[in-house]
Amino acid sequence: MDTLANLGLYGLGTMGSALALNILDNGFALHVANRSKDATDAFATEATEASLADKLTTHGSLADMARNMPAPRAIILMIPAGKPVETAIEDLCDLLEPGDTIIDAGNTDFHDTRRRTAYVEGRGLTFIGMGVSGGEEGARNGPSIMVGGTPDAWSGIRPVIEAIAAKFEDAPCADHLGPDGAGHFVKTVHNGIEYADMQMITELYGMMRYGQGMEPAAIGARFESWDTGALKSYLVEITGKVLQATDSKTGKPAVDVILDKAGQKGTGRWTLIEALRLGQSASSIEAAVAARSWSSEKETRVAGEEILAGTRNAVELGEADYADALLAARIIAYAQGFRLLSAASDEYEWSLDFARIAEIWRAGCIIRSSLLDDISAAFRGDMPHGQLVFAPAFADRLSKTVPALRRVVAAAALGGHPIPALASALSFIDTFAMARGLTDLIQGQRDFFGMHGFERLDDGSTGQHGPWWE
Ligand SMILES: NC(=O)C1=CN([C@@H]2O[C@H](COP(=O)(O)OP(=O)(O)OC[C@H]3O[C@@H](n4cnc5c(N)ncnc54)[C@H](OP(=O)(O)O)[C@@H]3O)[C@@H](O)[C@H]2O)C=CC1
Ligand SMILES: O=C(CO)[C@H](O)[C@H](O)COP(=O)(O)O
């Protein structure tokens, strides 16, 4: 596909309207439609006020848009995953013709993307599964974009995608990562890492707040100062801002008026499900998903505080302990995410380029951080056993920061502060720092109850049984 297709975008919610303005701002003509007409009208007004309406055409429905756009058409869907996307694709398959492209730019389970790619391409159309990260601000001013599809499909949309993407040192943070579900899977793992990073930040906030009696604004100021050093990242930056914000209605810190139940739309869970399917474990991501799920049981926790006599005792730690612990745990969360990408790349034969993925995450996306430059360099350099935590630059950083993570985990455990993600990150690194592990005993137990057999260390013979029944 060499001609740039006529662009359409369906779904003018938070992400769709911001992305549409970005596309128009970059000089491309755009057709738009939305399920409810109000949003289309509101968008047309917004585009007019921003002097971006001269290349905009609005339509009353997806079908109207598809019918009235000149071919070749590339229609971007920016709507919730699942049934809405399924229905839109079904409808478009009946309205579009060979040479046209459907782009699912929402957060979709990559298994659905693989299935839909086969289905849509079987109907003679082109399908692209495209992960977009950066929230509303990123979508408007430049997100990180992870594309899955054929090289031909990519070449057809590349000029638009590279124009609207975030730039890191002038290079677009967008690329074609592989066929079918590759783009959506990389976005899903991006979100898994996002969950882990947010959870680890939150655990440290909890210790400073309830273990050291610091006020949210003071903790926020700490995060703000960390955003200039090794922890420089979007999530640390916004944490500083959230913690320093005041609720105008009550005058209280804004966090203190927010119900402590975390929402989740599915990407963290999808990351875990796939990790388990691939025989992997991304334990810090798993801990973060679990923490969000447990948080939703507010009533149980209210009862539990009384029944279990929950206490949160004082902890004594310096600021550097918290900062170094976060750096160590963040490196481990990224490492677990990349291990999962590697396992999926092998399983689905995607040939993912991990250095490139780290590069396109350096700007525009929610997990952008100064570490990603070093991660891409590590993947291009010497990486023993393909493990990020073994790359010399990261092994060195871990040797300097894991002691602080250990102090933080120990203090949290003694003080009764829940730290599922930090603790699991530490156990990951401790496990991989031990040549002789503990599963000799597991193998013994399995053999005892199920005659499962084990391999002997001394002569390598397999299917061996222990002396349990002698
Ligand atoms: N918000 C974020 O930070 C990010 C979101 N995403 C993904 O982008 C996609 C859109 O999210 P977001 O913009 O936040 O969501 P919003 O809730 O802001 O907007 C949802 C949009 O989808 C439309 N929609 C909802 N249900 C249907 C349906 N059954 N059929 C057709 N259209 C429907 C809505 O139309 P109507 O106006 O009629 O309700 C609206 O235009 C999702 O896949 C999300 O996971 C990806 C990255 C970041
Ligand atoms: O993709 C995103 C950010 O990268 C979306 O904001 C997504 O909704 C975040 O996931 P959740 O809603 O489960 O926290």
Characterization of this structure:
The chain is α/β, with parallel strands linked by helices and 470 residues long. The protein has 3 domains: 6-180, Rossmann fold; 188-432, N-(1-d-carboxylethyl)-l-norvaline Dehydrogenase, domain 2; 439-469, Single alpha-helices involved in coiled-coils or other helix-helix interfaces, CATH 1.20.5.320. It is 56% helix and 9% strand. It has 19 helices and 10 strands. It has helices at 14-25, 37-49, 62-68, 83-95, 110-122, 135-141, 151-164, 182-211, 216-226, 234-244, 267-277, 283-295, 298-307, 319-348, 354-360, 371-380, 392-415, 420-432, 439-450, and strands at residues 6-10, 30-33, 56-58, 73-77, 101-104, 126-133, 144-148, 167-168, 171-172, 174-178. An 8-stranded mixed beta sheet has the order 3-2-1-4-5-6-7-10, with helices on both faces. The protein has a two-stranded antiparallel sheet with strand order 8-9. Strand 1, helix 1 and strand 2 form a beta-alpha-beta unit. It is globular, with a radius of gyration of 25 Å. It starts with 5 loop residues before the first strand and ends in a 20-residue tail after the last helix. 48% of the residues are buried. The model has no long low-confidence stretch (mean pLDDT 97). It binds NADPH dihydro-nicotinamide-adenine-dinucleotide phosphate and ribulose-5-phosphate. The site of ribulose-5-phosphate has 11 residues, from helix 8 and helix 11.
